[in-house]
Structures are given as C-alpha cells and as structure tokens.
Amino acid sequence: MADLQPVLADLQAESEDLDALVSDLPDEGWASRTPAAGWTIAHQIAHLAWTDRAAHLAIMEPDQFQAELRRALGKIDSYVDDAAAEGAALPATELLDGWRAGRGELAAALLGCAEAEKIAWFGPPMSATSMATARLMETWAHGQDIADALGVTRLPTARLRHVAHIGVRTRDFAYLVRDRVPPGEPFRVELTAPDGSIWIWGEGANQTVTGSALDFCLLVTQRRNRADLGLVARGADADAWLDIAQAFAGPPGSGREAGAFSA
C-alpha cells in the first residue's frame, strides 16, 4: 500500500512528539485541566488510547466493533466522555503504556489491510490510509489541547498537510451533521505550509479560503475560534463554511471561545 507507509511514519512521529510532552509529567501533571471542558491531560491521552483500540477492533474483529457502534449510538451524548473518564482513572504509567502499546498494534493491523478494504467506523467507512490519516489528525488535535494545558507552543510541521486534507474532505460532513445542505460547488483552499510552500485543494473553484495551514488546522479541529485566526474566505458559501468546519466524526463540537488563546 504505497500511500499508507508514509502516513504511518508521520503518525508515529506525531505520536512520539506528543509522547515526549507527557512522558515525564508528575502524577499531578496528568490532572491538569485542558481547554476541553471537563477533560484533563489524562482524559486526552485516554481518548487517544481508546480510539486506537476501537480502530484496531474495527479491523480485527468487525462484528465486535458493530456491537460497540450500537452501544455508542445508544448513548451518543455521553459515550466519548465516559470512555475518556474510564481511561483517565488509570494510574498514569498504565495509561501511558497502554497508549503506546495500542498505537503500535493499530499500525500493525493497518499494514495488514488489503488496499481496497474499507474499515467500518463511527463515521463513513475508511481505507487503511484514511484511518491512519484520521488518527494523525486526532493525535495532533488532542496534542494541541495538551500543549495548551502545559503552556507549550508547538512548532508546526509538514504533517499538518494530513490534518488540512481531512479538513477539506470533510466539508460536506460539517453541513450534513447539522442537517444542512452542502454547497453544490467545491471551494479552492490555498494554504501556506510551515516551510512557505503553498498547498492547494479545489484548483479552479470560484470561492476560496486562504491562510496559513496552521490556522486552517486549528479551525477545522475546533482548537481555536475563527475570530482568532487569519483565514480569509471569498464567497458567501466559503465564508459560512468556516463557521462550521469540522474535521472529526460525531456531533458538532462546541469549539473554543474567541480570545481564549493566541493562534
């Protein structure tokens, strides 16, 4: 699977960068509050660990994953928070070891997927490459919450391209999850990468979104309020999209208040 290997390498690098932020935290550090309401750093890592396990289950035991999916639908308002709270209650060393082991097991399972295989998920089914990209996006986004809790400024990397790609690809999902009709035409998204190069999606489209890749990724993962970012939309539909953009599966997120952070 030609596309999977580099994505997995980037996922590993993103995970290792986050691991370095938390590996030496004292026990009280794991209880530090993050920008996600009610979530500590332990909740953030627990969520990543749980999601890796769920993805592994979806690949290796699809029938069991379907049962898990039914449980999720039965308590959609509390399902994610409950799972994070359960993991956060573990001793920090056990939680960290579990996350490390689980992400390694998931990488091995993804490598064993057939190229055309679609993996069932809480959103639309995904290829192994798309699943790895989604795991990178979540690792980066929850890593941002942890960095904010610790007062750490992370240097943006070329791995943001994966996050931005999901942000573009999930445009219509952001409308559908809000029971709204997506625009009929694509948008041109033109982003300045960390190295100064330009990343473009939707070449030739009339309505545009421009800005830095970091700002766009912070927006679509709802880690910053649009008012605190330098993104520019041209066209009424493109402008409206930036108010609801959402790269993650599940119900609409509450986002962040304006002015809470500097971008």
Please outline the helices and strands.
Blueprint: H1 4-22, H2 27-30, H3 41-60, H4 62-74, H5 79-88, H6 92-111, H7 128-150, H8 160-169, H9 171-176, E1 188-192, E2 198-201, E3 208-212, H10 213-220, E4 232-234, H11 236-241
Parallel strand pairs: 1-3
Antiparallel strand pairs: 1-2, 3-4
Helix pairs in contact: 1-6, 1-7, 3-4, 3-5, 3-6, 3-7, 7-8, 8-10
Quickly list its features.
alpha+beta, Four Helix Bundle (Hemerythrin (Met), subunit A), 2 domains, globular
What does this 3D model show about the protein?
This protein is of the alpha+beta class. It folds into 2 domains: 147 residues, Up-down Bundle (Four Helix Bundle (Hemerythrin (Met), subunit A)), CATH 1.20.120; 82 residues. Helix content is 53%, strand content 6%. A hairpin with a 5-residue loop joins strand 1 and strand 2. Helix 1 packs antiparallel against helix 6 and helix 3 packs across helix 4.
Question: What's the N-to-C terminus distance?
Answer: 36 Å
Q: Tell me, what is the CATH class of the largest domain?
A: Mainly Alpha
List the secondary-structure elements in sequence, H or E: HHHHHHHHHEEEHEH
Residue stretches low in confidence (pLDDT < 50, at least 5 long) are none
Number of DSSP E strands? 4
What is the radius of gyration?
Answer: 18 Å
- Full CATH superfamily name of the largest domain: dinb family like domain
The portion of residues assigned to helices is: 40-55%
CATH architectural name of the largest domain: Up-down Bundle
Structural domain tally: 2
Provide mean pLDDT, rounded: 94
Strand order of the largest sheet: 2-1-3-4
> Which term fits the overall shape?
globular
Structural class: alpha+beta
The major β-sheet equals: 4 strands, mixed
Number of helices: 11
Classify the beta-strand content into a percent band: 5-15%
